Amino acid sequence: MKTIKDSVHDHIVVDGVARALLDTPEVQRLRHIKQLGTVSLVYPSANHTRFEHSLGVYHLACEALSQLGIEGRAAERVHAAAILHDVGHGPYSHNVESVIERHTGKYHEDVDDLVEQGPVGEVLREHDLEPARVSGLIGGEGQYGGLVSGELDVDRMDYLVRDAHHTGVPYGTIDSGRLVRELRFVDGELVLGEGNVQTAESLLVARALMNPTVYSHHVARIGKSMLRRGAERLIANGETTPEGLRRMDDHDLLVALRTADSTERIAGRLARRELFKRAVWSEYRDVPDDLLELSHEETVEYETAIADRAGVDPDDVILDVPAYPSMTESTTRVIVGGEIRRLEEQSPLVRTLRGVQLNQWRLGVYAPAEATDRVGHAAEAVLGLDTDGRLISDAVRGLHTTLDRFGTDAKRE
To answer: Which one of 12, 187, 316, 351 has the lowest number of neighbouring Cβ atoms within 10 Å?
Structure first.
């Protein structure tokens, strides 16, 4: 048994298979992977790690299992899955996951090889647990998989509160204690008990508020895009392999970027926080449909075309098209009037938040500060964007001047 002091949940007691897994290289590696990747470029205190988060997920899983009355080997499998649920993450968490997935076909939940082999597999077998069943739980399989990866998972309950705590942004605050206490299994389905529509809605609201202020903040997205380009170049130039990238931690990736000639410039900019700026920041309604699902190759072609038209180096243009916004929490099951209902069927708030998410969506084109005007005009023409979707530095400076004048006049009054 080991007791660990946590900044969010106070004291966490780690025992059994989870205690044994804690010291495996796969879990200890998570100490060197930031939970929020490049968000620390916006919020300097957002330096918490996947290791801390994994402990938090384990803690909430223990509480959920206890109140659900689940014990024995079934509980131990969930304990193991909770501690291990993030071992598949590459460096900087989700920031380079798309690069890894494109080359390996594996997302961070695809951990069969990591769980079934090496020290982790040995620990699980020593505790009479089947590695395949544990990796299945991490992927959300089986009756108890929803506790670790699902609409009501303890993963989400921990990261919202933890990310809000470390960024200092209050919007992610949820009542995780009530959420855990109100979990029920009905006919093998994980649901929230009667009278908890608002409890479920709190997850949606927290996620909707945290997205633009933290997870999709434009500075974090720019840093992510630059990091992703560097990772792609390391693979393309044979500086590392996709599997090698997948098993790096944050420090490994930064060293690789700094020591490779092809990525030294990107590494320097990231280290000094000399980030690209927004040349375009376009709303969903202003973006042609054929731009919404571009392949990597198509994205590169557009970047090259924009650079050619703007008269800049192709390295100075990054096109960033996020995925269509999803709302996994909307399918949460809640008991209403003795019936199990999907939250989206019961809550008008879900429909409102779907619209909010779409309004928050932005296509970005990034370039060095001195090139944003040229790249903005070129991107608008090449991509066929509405003129209102372009963020041009001259217009921004004009807006600031107007606001400054307004402020001066207001003070005079």
So the answer is: 187
CATH architecture of 2-168: Orthogonal Bundle (1.10)
User: Residue 328 CB: number of other CB atoms within 10 A?
Assistant: 13
Digit-coded pLDDT (tens) for 7-52: 999 999 999 999 999 999 999 999 999 999 999 999 999 999 999 9
First to last CA, the chain: 67
Give the angle subtended at the CA of 302 by the CAs of 300 and 304, to the nearest 5°: 70
Low-confidence stretches of the chain (pLDDT < 50) are: 389-403, 405-406, 408-413
- Nearest partner of 274 among 175, 393, 367, 170, judged by Cα: 367
**Contact criterion met (CB below 8 Å) for 59 and 181:** no
pLDDT of residue 397: 40
Reference 11, options 50, 85, 49, 62; nearest CA is 62
**What pLDDT shows up at residue 328?**
81
Q: CB-based contacts of 262: which residues, under 8 Å, 6+ apart?
A: 233, 234, 237, 239
220 φ/ψ angles, rounded to the nearest 5 degrees: -65, -40
Amino acid identity, position 1: M
Angle at 200 between CA 214 and CA 353, to 5 degrees: 55
- Give the CA distances from residue 219 to residues 140, 205, 231, 302, in Å, rounded to whole numbers and listed in that order: 32, 23, 18, 22
Pick one of 2.60.40, 3.30.70, 1.10.510, 3.40.50 as the CATH number of 276-324+361-413. 3.30.70
Spell out the domain ranges in the chain: 2-168, 276-324+361-413
Question: By C-alpha distance, which of 118, 22, 124 is closest to 73?
Answer: 124
* Residue with the two structure tokens 């807006």: 399
Q: Are strands 2-6 and 10-14 parallel, antiparallel or unpaired?
A: antiparallel
Using the 8-state DSSP alphabet, how is residue 324 labeled? Answer: P
C-alpha span between 211 and 237 (Å, rounded): 34
Contact 40, 161 (CB under 8 A): no
| Torsion angles phi and psi, residue 277, rounded to 5 | -115, 170
Distances (CA, A) of 336 to 153, 179, 327, 346: 20, 16, 21, 9
